[in-house]
Amino acid sequence: MKLNRLFPDSGYASPLLSYQALYVLMFFCMLWSLCYLRPFYDGYGDTPSYFNAWLHLKEFRPDGARTPVYPLVITAFRVLFGLDAGGMMTAIFQWLVFLVAVNYFRKSLLLLGVGLRGSFLATAVFALCPGVFHYNICYITESLAVSGMIFFMYFIIRLGKTPEVRDIYLAAVTLTFLVFLRPAFIYLLPLTALYAGVLWLRFRREAVRTVRAGLISLAVVVGLYAGYGVAVNRCYGLHTISYISVYNNLYLIREAKLMTPSSATTSAIREIIETNVTDGESVDFQSIEREIRPFFELDLAEQERYADSVASSNKTALLKYLLLSRFNQFSKYPALICYIPGSDHRSGEYRMSAAYIPIQTFLWFAVIYAVWLCVYYRKRREIPVVSMMLLAVSMGLAAVVFVGYNRPRQQV
After folding, report:
1. Long-range Cβ pairs for the range 89-97 (8 Å, 24+)
2. Which of these, 326, 338, 258, lies nearest to 292 by C-alpha position?
3. Which of 56, 83, 326, 366 sits CB 3.0–4.6 Å from 63 for a disulfide?
4. Quick one: CA dihedral 396, 402, 406, 410, positive or negative?
5. pLDDT per residue as tens digits for the range 161-200
6. Opening angle at CA 359, ends 353 and 360, nearest 5
7. Using CA atoms, how far apart are residues 220 and 214, in angstroms rounded to an integer?
8. What is the reported pLDDT for 408?
């Protein structure tokens, strides 16, 4: 079989500007990144918590910190291939999933009406993003989150064009995968519900069976999420599916200087604050983490009640701090940092070097996209549903990054 039958047309005559060349380059990028792979037992800061989650999941009870998808993935490779080879197989798996996602990224662009050449160039930029070399060899959820979002948006675009029952089921499966991979993806549930409502109004007479399948599928996903939340509440007393959100709230409260003795809801919390929390400003992540670490000895529900109490009592101050601090941080560090594997030649130790991608690039793209939507509406007097959904998902993801952004930390 000829290669041109295996790979799609890029629109360019040069063999260097072809999908064959792009995938060969990605393959060598994968081999290069795997040379710097860390073993499971020398993983990243979040890796041990994914391993520990399995201790609860195997007893058919939720873990308080981590949702089940990624612990099941890395545990499966660890069991099948052992502690040493399991890490390598996990990284290869994440790379292979990403390679498939690249093709779905290309197909999504074509569905949106982007030409062959434009689709190839955009796909190449996405496929060769420096951050991929880092995330695909990490034992954290970012790699599968990126790939999963590409799959989800592909099915969303297809549904906006011509709804099919098969695409609805696949979109529902992908949505379930995402919300149980990273709790931050919960924002996709209301957006998807709104999107389903718009599609129902648009196609209810043409595809009754398809629309019905979509509403039922969405109800199942929401039901699974709610059921998991009930299980977490029964085991830990939490009103969220992951304790990590409580930890993030504690960090934000301390960062905003709202963690004072007067904010304490119990005597134990007051003692922790008076003993560990300094009056001055903690300028880095590690300092703040050391100050709030004693909270981890408390009951999870007690930590959540305290964080919720401070946040609800200081909504204006917290929002003001969040906006001002993040804008100040972005002006000081005006880039998203993607870490590329490498080595420190002076010491011979593993090290990550940084590649900077300007945040302004994304912001300007969002502004241009929004202006285009306004022009489109003015000319045709209709709202492009798929485009609005893409913009909403992108803005939601940007908001999650904005709220959770921390100052760049030194990598080892």
Report:
1. 90/40, 90/139, 91/33, 91/34, 91/37, 91/136, 91/137, 92/30, 92/34, 94/135, 94/136, 94/137, 94/143, 94/144, 94/147, 95/30, 95/33, 95/34, 95/136, 95/137, 97/143, 97/144, 97/147
2. 258
3. 56
4. positive
5. 888 889 999 999 999 999 999 988 999 999 998 888 888 8
6. 140
7. 10
8. 43
